[in-house]
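call fold(seq) -> tokens
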Amino acid sequence: MDILVFATSVAEPEQVSKVSPILTSVLAIEDWNFDLEDCDKVLRVVAENISPRYIESLLQEAGFNCIELEY
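ret:
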């Protein structure tokens, strides 16, 4: 399993609710969560064989900024 970490523009619980069905529908994603308290509004994704660019594009299509963070 890989853990991917992203900075996002998702800032409110209502916005998390908007992207939840999108992330949940991706079978390769085992788990995900947002840290809305973090200054980068971090999204952590636990997945197998998934491109960070794919996650970025999913959130961008939903109207949010999303960029992978190096850790």
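The chain has a mean pLDDT of 97.
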